[in-house]
Amino acid sequence: MAAGADGFCSFHSPSLGRARAIGRKRGGERQRIGHAADSTPPPAQVHTLGDVLAVLNYTLREALPLENSVQRGRLLVQLAHAFIEAIKAGEYETRLAALEAAVGAGKA
User: What is the pLDDT of residue 30?
Assistant: First the structure.
């Protein structure tokens, strides 16, 4: 790189230190990806299966547009597993409610 008037290149010139710092800050800010999901935040507290599914759906919407990487791949696999477990729990909950209703109807 060619030397400037002070004898230094732009990367080592003491007079350009502040401009370099501002450039590094802007470069770091521009690498961040904004939120992909809609503006509806996930539930602040998770108390029900519906809340769990809402958090999982929000996380999935945020993760899908990210750049492909090993970490993204792992996240998507873990999300798929979490969805499967949540769906299983929902099915067990539905079956248990049906059994309780049948037992309650038999007693009457």
Answer: 62
53: number of Cβ within 10 Å: 18
Over residues 5-29, the mean pLDDT reads 78
Query: What pLDDT score was predicted for residue 1?
Result: 62
Cα gap 6→68, rounded to integer Å = 44
CA-based torsion, 5, 8, 11, 17: positive or negative: negative
Rounded to an integer, the average pLDDT of 65-93 is: 95
What letter represents residue 31's amino acid?
Q
Q: What dihedral angle (degrees, nearest 10) is formed by the CA atoms of 28, 33, 34, 37?
A: -160
CA–CA gap between residue 14 and residue 99 (Å, rounded):
77
Q: Where are the domains of the chain?
A: 1-32, 37-107
Q: Rounded to an integer, what distance in angstroms lies between the CA atom of residue 54 and that of residue 37?
A: 12
pTM of the model: 0.62
